[in-house]
Specification:
This protein has six helices and eight strands. It has about 260 residues and is of the alpha+beta class. The protein has three domains: about 70 residues, Nucleic acid-binding proteins (OB fold (Dihydrolipoamide Acetyltransferase, E2P)), CATH 2.40.50; about 120 residues, no CATH class; about 35 residues, no CATH class. The strands form two sheets. It has a five-stranded antiparallel beta sheet with strand order 3-2-1-4-5. A three-stranded antiparallel beta sheet has the order 7-6-8. The radius of gyration is 20 Å and the shape is globular. It starts with a strand and ends with a helix. InterPro entries: ARFGAP/RecO (IPR037278), DNA_rep/recomb_RecO_N (IPR022572), NA-bd_OB-fold (IPR012340), RecO (IPR003717), RecO_C (IPR042242). It comes from Parasaccharibacter apium.
Length: about 260
């Protein structure tokens, strides 16, 4: 059996002296494991990097076997981000979530297309990465896994404007009016998660990451008795620091 498909490299691990075990998200076939012969060689080092967009070729005698993979490089995403830690954290988090959350060999074409788009945008704006776009991608990941949030109207009043919170239990949006005295028990919903044109600020990114992270942990990883990927935790740390720096800078301006 043999196929060819666009793919995003999610995870790499050494196998023997020169080969690699590769986990990749393909456009039409979902997540695949494969063996790459000579993948640790200098000649192939630039090709096999987490986050790279490639055209992958997979071959095996039987469909259920591990199979072998070769590839042609389309875009070495990580190489555009080397001097930008936040961008690298976003890329690592996306790859880690896909690698650990998605079941093998189940197609997720919309998720692949959205991730490839995000990586393309980030490659040309690494210094100012599209954090809100990434967080909206995490919401799509939840949806693709069957745990989509209901963010189009208030669960209490039914209104579609002024949505400000999300119930941590049901995943349904709640307006400021509908929250009432329960707002302290709800998760803040930053508007940049609802508006594709809004980028938001560091405080919004942190709130959005807490929101999506709560449901990723509760609905996806807790069911398997596993924590969120370490790369996702590193992204949260980076967002905390950004939010703290922004708040400190604002306080300094107010004092001046």
């Amino acid at each position: 059996m043999e196929w060819e498909d666009p793919a995003i490299i999610l995870r790499l691990s050494p196998h023997g002296e020169s080969s690699l075990l590769v986990r990749a998200l393909t456009r039409h076939r979902g997540v695949f494991h494969a063996l790459v012969r000579g993948g640790q060689s200098r000649r192939q080092a630039a090709l096999w990097q987490e986050g790279s967009l490639v055209v992958a070729r997979w071959k095996a005698r039987l469909p259920e076997q591990l199979g072998y993979m070769t590839a042609e490089l389309v875009r070495p995403t990580a190489s555009f981000l080397l001097d930008h830690p936040l961008s690298l954290s976003l890329l690592g988090s996306a790859c880690g979530l896909c690698s650990e959350a998605l079941p093998e060999r189940e197609p997720h074409e919309a998720l692949f297309a959205s991730l490839a788009h995000f990586m393309g945008v980030m490659s040309v704006s690494a210094a100012l990465p599209p954090v809100a776009l990434y967080l909206r991608w995490e919401l799509l990941l939840l949806e693709q896994l069957g745990y989509g949030l209901t963010l189009d109207q208030c669960a209490v009043t039914g209104v579609r404007e002024g949505l400000a919170y999300v119930s941590p239990r049901t995943g349904r949006a709640v307006s400021e009016e509908g929250a009432g005295e329960w707002k302290d028990r709800l998760l803040p919903l930053p508007s940049c998660l609802l508006d594709d044109e809004e980028e938001g600020k560091p405080a919004d990114w942190l709130a959005g990451a807490r929101l999506s992270g709560h449901f990723l942990q509760r609905a996806v990883f807790a069911a398997c008795h596993r924590p969120l990927p370490a790369a996702r935790d590193r992204l949260m740390t980076a967002l905390y620091r950004l939010a703290e720096d922004a708040a400190s800078g604002q306080e300094e301006e107010e004092r001046v």
